[in-house]
UniProtKB/TrEMBL annotation:
Gene transcribed to yield this protein: nfi
Annotated TM spans: none
Listed HAMAP family: Endonuclease_5 (MF_00801)
GO cellular component: cytoplasm
Enzyme class: hydrolase
Lineage top rank: taxon: Bacteria
Name by which UniProt lists this protein: Endonuclease V
Keywords of the record: Cytoplasm, DNA damage, DNA repair, Endonuclease, Hydrolase, Magnesium, Metal-binding, Nuclease
Pfam families with a match to the protein in the record: Endonuclease_5
Swiss-Prot/TrEMBL cofactor(s): Mg(2+)
GO molecular function term, any single one: magnesium ion binding
EC number: 3.1.21.7
Subcellular location(s) of the protein: Cytoplasm
Organism of this sequence: Hymenobacter edaphi
Length: 229
């Protein structure tokens, strides 16, 4: 589902400073580390904005590694936070938390449609929601937000590093999930390392560009959208 992004005037500098400080504080809690055990349930999270002032957040829960759907929930409601580039997670996270509260099956890992560490301040939505819930999380995004990368090889499963343009730090990986299709951008959010994040994204791929958790979250968003019209 497409984001609703009409023209917005420049953000209030005081708001930007406040949000930047909040991201800095959250980053102090962020941990990038290997998983201690293989997950049994993995969730896909996706948010979209049907209108400027409303948000629809969807969470699906799948078995892993079978990727069988066991639960799907959504939450639809108002959003008060204005759109500020680089701070979209503050618009998405509150409604995602409300959707998460509806789950009857608690996942072991969260796969979020968006970025994690591959963010200018290393705190994309996958990191943001992972820190808030203190859960292992990763982001799988369709477009690059920051950094530079070579093109991965054409074969599905090929990977290339996504690095910071100034420091050369590894902030994500570019993963080719399907032949002759643009790659996705994978980065850890919280309580995962890069190698684990990329491996999970690849193991959740089933012949589509997007891994199944986020692909199905996007699919069900279209279905749930019919219920809120």
């Amino acid at each position: 589902m497409a984001y609703y992004r009409p023209y917005h005037p420049p953000a209030d500098p005081a708001l930007v400073r406040t949000l930047t400080q909040q991201q800095h504080d959250m980053r102090q809690q962020q941990r990038l580390e290997p998983l201690t055990a293989s997950p049994k349930l993995i969730a896909g999270l996706d948010s979209s904005f049907p209108t400027e002032d409303t948000i629809l957040s969807v969470i699906v829960v799948l078995t892993f590694p079978e990727l069988q759907l066991v639960e799907k929930v959504y939450n639809y409601g108002p959003v008060d936070m204005p759109y500020v580039p680089g701070f979209l997670s503050f618009r998405e996270a509150p409604n995602l938390l409300l959707a998460y509260e509806k789950l009857q099956h608690r996942p072991d890992v969260l796969m979020v449609d968006g970025h994690g560490y591959a963010h200018p301040r290393r705190m994309g939505i996958a990191a943001h929601i992972g820190v808030l819930l203190d859960m292992p999380s990763l982001g799988v995004a369709k477009q690059v937000l920051t950094g530079q990368h070579p093109e991965p090889e054409a074969a599905p499963g090929s990977r290339a590093p996504l690095t910071d343009k100034k420091t050369g730090e590894l902030i994500g990986e570019v993963l080719r999930t399907k032949d002759r299709v643009k790659p996705v951008f994978v980065s850890p959010g919280h309580r995962l390392d890069q190698a684990t994040a990329t491996e999970l994204a690849w193991r959740c791929t089933r012949g589509y560009k997007l891994p199944e958790p986020t692909r199905l979250a996007d699919h069900w968003a279209e279905q749930f959208k019919k219920e809120i019209r």
